Amino acid sequence: MAVLPVLDSIPAMAIRLDRGLVCRYANLRYALFCGLAPEQLRGMALPALLPAGSDLAAVGSQLQQVLHGAELTFLTAGAEPLLEITAAPERNACGAIDGCTLLLHDVSARIRLAQLRDAEHAVSRALSAAGHEAAAIACVLSIFGERLHWDWGACWRHEAHSRLLERLACWQPPDAAPLQIAQQRILVLPPETDAMTRALRLRRPVWTGTLPPFAAGRGGLAGSEGLCEMLLVPVIAGDACFGVLEFFGRSRRVDDAALLTTARAIGEQLGLALRRCIAEKHRLAAAEQLSTLFDNVPGAVFRLHLAADGAYRFSYISEHLHKLCGVSAAAALNDPASLHELICPEHRRHLRRALQLSREQGSEWDCEFEIRPATARRAWVRLRARPQQHGEGSVVWDGVLTDVTDRKRAELDLVELNLDLEQRITERTKDYRQAINELGAFAYSVSHDLRAPLRAINGFTRIVLNEHGSEFSPVVRDYLQRVDAASSRMGELIDALLALSRMSRQDLALGHVDLSLMAQSVADELARTQPRSGVSLSVQPGLHCTADGRMMRILLENLLGNAWKFSRKRAAAVIEFGALPRDNELVYHVRDNGAGFDRQYAERLFEPFRRLHETSEFEGTGIGLATVQRIVHRHGGRIWAESAPERGATFFFTLATPRNAP
Amino acid sequence: MNPCSVLLVEDNPDDESLTRRGLRKAGWDDAVVVARDGAAALDAIRDMEQLPDLVLLDLKLPKFDGTEVLRQIRGEERTRRLCVVVFTSSSEPRDIERCYGLGCNSYIIKPVAYENYISTVEHISSYWLALNAPPASRG
Fold it and tell me: Which of A55, A363, A482, B85 is the one with CA 20 to 30 A from A262?
């Protein structure tokens, strides 16, 4: 038969079966595949011919169809190696089917590869849909476990430099009996020789096909449960390693590079997915944190978009808005006009103007306005936002709305208070002016009405004395002279009192005053009207000020006059007028070496009609220093004196540059 | 000689008496007419055929006061050249300014001391009646 040498030489395994599916012939390749001699195979039934564990029923039913004339190609199932069988009927000389010829190919490797590819693609698809870490891990374990017929899968988390591994998830085929290894949830990183440690260290998958039962470690535990193979896949993303995937199986598969390549790819895919999930989680956490932050800001944070055509919308408003004006952030995002309607109509223009200004100049949008919410109380709101140009004339403001009601109320109260105060000042000023006018009327009547009777007393007393003196006794004449002297003195008092009142009422006529020149002129006048020898009066040259010249003259006349008067008992009187700077102001002084006064009276020196000396000792009205003090005060200055009895006196005074002197 | 050389407008008899003494001392007391208030002063001037050489005018007067008298004197054509010396107790700058503003010839404050008073009246009369009187008015 010429056919048999042909079957022996084709690059395929071939057998011929009779109608009872008993081997009539097997070629050499098939004999080698089975590990027997071709002669030994002859006469063997189908179950003995196929690899143990193959699904014989399926093959048998296929071959029955072939014996009925069909030509078929099909795969064996159930156990490796998997065979692709192409079968054709064999006919005898009469054309009747008396057997079949089978060409067989070992497609285990190809099928496995396809399975691996499928698994890889399925994992890839599932990972892209997985929203979080747990889902990603679960889908990898179940897809890889189911498709590649593992009996156990787990994912262990391992952090760099940690000696512990934590089980994140595990998988078993549905309805499988629970395994002891499932009890372990935390592992101490095994020694270097262990597959898990090797996988982590080498950063590539490790496969072991023989698990020694009763050996140490997790592999030994699995082995004692009847599991015989183990695959450890590091979960890697770039430089980062999240942990390791662990698979145990009962069926012994061929150690091939394709498994490790796929495992590696799946480990990397999971690693990337986990990294993405973690990044997403961080991003969400950051967004959440930001949102929490915005919600905790004591004000409503917002982002407002204004298009070139004037349309506006919010892309973000924090929840604080509700507290501020009773409108929820969601409502404002949906309907920005609802916020605009809360603003008091009279403040809307102001707000728009401020917005326009900010838009044109790129400056901060800063304004305050009042809102009238339907539900909440009326409130003042301050808006502050920074603009950013976003092209095509659109502008985006990021800003914050804060409740400034309390401050605003305080401000308004203050304005009211100020108005009230101003009114009260106006009233007081009116009262004050009235008092001054009354004082003026009083002074007028003093000067006019009091002086007239005084003039009569004085005049007629003098007439009596001058023209009728001889008619009276010396005693009567003495009395009349006393009346005369008393009335003269009263006239002087009235004049002094008038001068004092005039100092208070008269407006200041400010001008440049040469105090040195004025003091010298007063000194010359004193020397002329009250001539005395042995007086040395010195005036510091170059003292100028801005003041009322007439008042300054009265001041100098009084102070120099006092010095002149109270030093007259000195054989060598020394009087000095000058000024020295002290604490940023010029302090003027009039010094004498005269009678002086007791320090305890220094304060009361300036009261009207206050005299520290007997009238008989030093004449005077007692009003001079009161007038001087009034003049100094009118010029916004201070006056004080230092002295000791019989040690001379020094009067100091300052003159502020008067602005709004009363 | 003018039958009225001096019109003394003075409500206070004491002051009138003292002023008369001064005028007498200066030799002008024989032609003094006294008016007790502002209205009387204006009536007296209106009734006089010949105007006085000097009006000595107190300020504080019954009816209307000295400044009003001065204003009316200066307001009428017949009397506006009259020599009016305000002679008063008031030393208020306001009064002084007002009177000079209305056109008084001089403003003299009445001294309290008798000798001063007398000599002041003497000086006034000798200055305004003897030195400054226009020759034409002395009939």
Answer: A55
Type and span of the H or E element at A397: strand A395-403
Task: Give the model's pLDDT for residue A217.
Answer: 77
Distance from CA of A432 to the nearest CA of B (A): 19
pLDDT of residue A661: 38
B contact residues 26-85, partner A, Cβ 8 Å cutoff: 59-60
**Which chain A residues are closer than 8 Å to B60 by Cβ?**
448-449
Cβ separation of A454 and B112 shorter than 8 Å?
A: yes
Residue A398: alpha-carbon gap to chain centroid: 13
Residue A171 Cα to chain centre, angstroms: 48
Question: For position A662, what pLDDT does the model report?
Answer: 37
Specify whether the CB–CB gap between A171 and A142 falls below 8 A: yes
Cross-chain residue pair A443–B92, CB shorter than 8 Å: yes
The token pair that represents A580 in the structure block:
């020295």
Q: Any CB–CB contact under 8 A between A463 and chain B? A: yes
d(C-alpha B108, C-alpha B89), whole Å:
9
What is the residue type of A457? I
Contact A244, A158 (CB under 8 A): yes
Using alpha carbons, list the distances in angstroms from residue B99 to A507, B90, B112.
20, 11, 21
What is the chain B residue with the closest CA to A442?
Answer: B92
Identify which of B89, B91, B115 has the shortest CB distance to residue A452: B89
Q: Across residues B11-24, what is the average pLDDT?
A: 91
Q: pLDDT by residue (tens digit) across A222-271?
A: 888 888 888 999 998 888 888 999 999 887 776 678 888 889 999 998 99
CB contact under 8 A, A447 and B14: no
**What pLDDT digit, counting tens, does each position of A342-396 carry?**
888 888 888 888 888 898 888 999 989 988 887 767 888 999 999 988 878 889 9
- Compare CB distances from A462 to B14, B93, B115 and report the shortest one's residue: B115
Predicted local confidence at residue A444, as pLDDT: 66
E-strand spans in A178-332? 186-188, 206-208, 229-237, 240-249, 300-306, 312-317
Give Dmax over CA atoms of chain B in angstroms: 38
The secondary structure of chain A in percent helix, strand, coil, rounded to multiples of 5, reads: 50, 25, 30
Q: With contacts defined as CB-CB under 8 Å, which chain A residues touch B113?
A: 458, 488, 491
pLDDT tens per residue, range A215-226: 777 878 888 888
Q: Are the beta carbons of A449 and B60 separated by less than 8 Å?
A: yes
Q: Per the CB < 8 Å rule, is A447 touching B91? A: yes
CA distance A319 to A321: 5
Q: Identify each DSSP E strand in A416-473 by its residue range.
A: none
What lies within 8 Å, CB to CB, of A178 at 6+ separation is A172
Q: Which residue has the tokens 């430099």?
A: A161
Identify the burial level of A359 via C-beta atoms within 10 angstroms of its C-beta, where 0-12 means exposed, 13-18 middle and 19 or more buried. Answer: middle
**Residue contact A452–B14, C-beta within 8 A:** yes
* Cα angle, residue A37 at apex, residues A34 and A41 outer, rounded to 5°: 70
3-state helix, strand and coil shares in percent for chain B, rounded to the nearest 5: 50, 15, 35
**Tens digit of each residue's pLDDT (9 = 90 or more) over B71-114:** 999 999 999 889 999 999 888 788 899 999 999 999 999 988 88
Q: Binning pLDDT at 50, 70 and 90, where does residue B139 land?
A: very low
Q: CA gyration radius for chain B?
A: 14
pLDDT tops 90 at residue A321: no
Distance CA A546, CA A346 (A): 51
